[in-house]
Structure formats: C-alpha cells, structure tokens
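Request: How about a record?
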Amino acid sequence: MTSSFLIIGMIILTQTVVGILGNFSLLCSYIVLHCMGYRLRSTDFILKHLIVANSLVLLCKGVPHTMAVFGWKHIRSDVGCKLLFFLHRVGRGVSISSIFLLSVFQVTTISPWNSRWAALKVTAPKYVILSIFLCWILQMLVNIIFPFHMTGKWSDRNITGEKDFGYCSSILTDKTEDALYAALLLFPDVLCLGLTLWAGSSMVLILYRHKQQVQHIRRTDASSRSCPESRASKFILLLGSTFVYFYILSSICQFLLGLFDQPSRFLVDITIIIAACFPTVSPFLLMSHNSGVHRLYFAGIRYAKSSTIMRKV
C-alpha cells in the first residue's frame, strides 16, 4: 500500500469513527432527555431522523470503504453490496429531506402572524411526524432500482463492463438509460435543495426585517439580546449552509465519477471523503447549539451533585 492510500485510509477511518461516535452520543442524549420527561420540540424530532440518516451514510459507506482501502476482504456477497448501497442512498436522501423540513418549519415558526404563512404556524407541527416518515418512504421508492446496478467483487481481476467502487462494482449499462435514471435520482434532491435555499433566503429576510424593527430600541441589553427563535433560525441557517456546501462538492465528484467508465481510485476515495464530511461535522454543530443537549448536561450535573450530597448525608 502506497503512502497516499494509507493517508486516505486513515482520513476515512477517522471520519467514520468520529462521525459515528458523535451521532450515537447525540442520539443517546435525545433518548435520555425523552426518558427524563423533557418535552422535545418538533425540530428535535426532525433532528433525530437526521442523526439516524447520517449514521446510515457513515456505516454503509465509510466502514466498508475503509476495509477496501486497507486491503481487507471485499464484500463478495451481491446481497450485502446491494443492501449497503441502498441504505447509503436512502440515508443520504433522508439527510437532504431533513434539512429541507428543518428550514421550512423554521420559516413558518418565525414568520409574522400577518404573513401568508400564518396559517401554517399552527398546523405545521401536527404534520412533522407524517412528513419525515413520508421522506423515508419516498427515498426507499426512488432508490429501489439502484441496488440492481450493483454487484459484489468476486475477484480482484479487472472485468470489462463493470465500474470499480473499491468494495463493490456497478454494472455498466446504456448511457441513455443511465442518464434517465440519474435524472430520476436527482429530481427529489434538486427539488429539496432548491426549496432549502429558498427557505434559507426567507429566514435571512425575516431576520433582517426584525432587526430593522428593533433598531429604535436604545437600551443595549435589550437590543443585543436575541430571542430563542432568532438563535434557532441562525443555527438552522448554519446547518443548512454547511450541508449545501458539502452537497455541491459531493455532487461535482459524483458527476466526475459518472463521466468515466473506470474512474481512478483516488477520485473514488475523495468522493467518499467529501460525502462523509457533513455526517461527521453535523452532530458537533448540533451539540454546540442545541439547548436540549445542554439541558441534559446540566441535569446530569445536578443529578451527580444531589447523589454526592445524599451519600454524604
């Protein structure tokens, strides 16, 4: 193994381990909060599904590709290879849908009562659970054909008619058929991405108008203090912009992969690294801005202090 592949393998391994630990710890925090009786918001429910989707992306892409980079045993089972690619595609799609739902839900939350979104301020929380489950079902239906184009690596020989993805291969088909299927896969992603950008722009406009309205307040403490809705909106804007940035980079790499029948191993590895960036970074963004996780930590500290006092008594 050359030094470049060793470095890439270490990067992918680090991303996978750090990302899985971050997402798992954050998901455990939400579970503990729920068991402790804390009332979770509608956005917290969407975030939990985002965490699960990110974990699927890391587990189904990072782990087997790390094994392939370090020369460990390839996935020789067609069923295992198809299942991993299917779950990765579903997790990636649900991640996009979750960011879209977060952005749209926050727009309806911070919009004024005299706006056209006023009616959705009350009804939107009722449909959050239904919307996120529809996202899972839609992504499963859209990506159901994808596994049929994947196959396990039965040998280390170069086989014509197959595109090597490190631990699995895809069967090369007609270019026209590939283009039609790529358009089918991209349509939900592009739609969600466009609506996410629109929702983010709407949030920026609403926050700017709100800032303009409170500029006449002279007191420093009142003008500098931001409301919870404003802080949540800024965080969702940060999360959404981070996702859009990495999604665009990942899409460029995916496009380059599609241009070549036999892409270089380096291009495949770089595509995996970029695709894993958001699932790795997002749990730590959530931990740093999520008040629910902070409540859990403070509750744990209070519980530890009370236990210490009880033992002393």
In short: The first strand starts at residue 150 and ends at 152. Residues 218-225, 307-313 have pLDDT under 50 and may be disordered.
